[in-house]
Amino acid sequence: MPTRLHADIPPVNGAASWLDGYESRAVGLGRSHVFRVIEAALDPLILVVSLWGGALYRDGRVSSAYLILGVLVFSLSFPGASQLRMSVMRMVFNICFNWIWIAGLLLMIGFLTNYAKAFSVNVIGHWLWLAPFCQVMAHLVLRRAAPQLIRLQGELPRAVVVGMNPQGEALARGITGSAYAGIELLGFIDDRGDQRYTQKNEFKLVGKIDELTAFVKSNRVQFIYLSLPMTSRPRILQVLDGLKDTTASIYFVPDMFITDLIQGRTDSVCGVTVIAVCDTPFRGYNGFLKRGSDVLLALLILLLISPLLLLIAVLVKLDSSGPVFFKQRRYGLDGEDIVVYKFRSMVVLEDGERIEQAHKNDARVTRLGAFLRRTSLDELPQFCNVLQGRMSVVGPRPHAVAHNELYRTLIKGYMVRHKVKPGITGWAQVNGQRGETDTLDKMQARIDFDLDYLRNWSLQLDLYIILKTIRLVFKDSTAY
């Protein structure tokens, strides 16, 4: 994220995202905070208005009990989260997830304190479904109205990016590709006229670095994003010194020595501040939350599917000779060997130095195995791995040890995916990266999604992936 040098303008993050609408990183909404204010107040106000409206409709007035409940709801839901850059599906999921948490907490408190008797069952019952419905409608209206609201703010603030390099171009694409950016990107300032980084000439080169101050003054530029290498300290100081005679807000877009941060955050070691470049998201409270959700989900799912597990075990035994379960060594947390369980779907039990991936019309796959693999039912025994602590319900899918040893030499950052436990399902799998990875590009795409999961993990994302997995099980045909 750009490092902010002035305190009057929100920073812009132009990093490209693989998250398909889930975590499209926020692009600053120009000089006005109108969208930030609207989104912060929208959800809390809708929850309160829908509650008081229901009470007014039924009783003709809003009693003190509803007034107090409204204040409590507002405090729990303020500020509302930004939903503009998320897909509609993700927006609906977030609204429902947050509402279930708030409503569940309020109902529990109401029953434990006996305060629930002060409210009408009819009003509360209708409010439970009306509130999230109104939230969804309001956010859809805001999406339609956002471009018009931006135009009403008048002339857009102008911006330039200093340094034509990959992170600078990612920022530029984020600004120009967002319907809600509210920023006019004039182009790049760079000394290299050959545009060696921009192969498709996507962006305009408007001047050289020595001309930056004059360009900013003559074109009334308000945002300057410095995308210069961290090693160019003298050059950066020269640019900053020249910009002291302007009123533009300045931001760094650091390359961190061309290192992509995984859970980047500051920490202190023996009183010395350090910056995490690559770390696991599951430390402290997050680790407890992840493990707790894994155990609860695994126990619940195993309880529900126990008859199905028994049926599949019998069918596997009847379909072909061999054991019911297939055990294979995989890399787990920190690259340690673990044993993963699956229902046997092939006539062979390969676990050596060379393992051929399953492919379409693979003769090794049994008749029942083809169905099990296509529907992912062969993975169900891995919920036992979750209870053992070897795996998580959601995480990067574990690859065979032989495949790990191959791809770790071919794909940069491949082993970073082992900063967390492998999962039964993952962000890559619900985004189409499931099945045979017969080319390096396919494996690279899978790893890109895995690393994005590490950067952006949340319990909401885990639940979203689980729900999307259930939907894909019935229509995905990429697994063999």
For this entry, give a set of tags:
single chain; 480 residues; alpha/beta; Rossmann fold; 3 domains; 6-stranded mixed beta sheet; two-stranded antiparallel sheet; flat; disordered N terminus
Task: Please describe what this structure looks like.
The chain folds into three domains: 3-24 and 154-258, NAD(P)-binding Rossmann-like Domain (Rossmann fold), CATH 3.40.50.720; 34-152, no CATH class; 285-473, no CATH class. It starts with a strand and ends in a 7-residue tail after the last helix. It is 45% helix and 11% strand. It is flat. With 480 residues, it is α/β, with parallel strands linked by helices. Strand 5, helix 7 (233-242) and strand 6 (249-252) form a beta-alpha-beta unit. The model is unreliable at 1-32 (pLDDT under 50). The longest helix is centred in the middle third of the chain and has 35 residues, at 285-319. It is built from 13 helices and twelve strands. It has helices at 34-59, 64-77, 88-113, 121-152, 166-176, 212-218, 233-242, 285-319, 367-375, 382-388, 401-407, 440-456, 459-473, and strands spanning 3-4, 158-162, 184-189, 205-207, 221-226, 249-252, 266-269, 272-275, 325-331, 337-343, 392-394, 423-425. The strands form four sheets. It has a six-stranded mixed β-sheet with strand order 1-6-5-2-3-4, with helices on both faces.
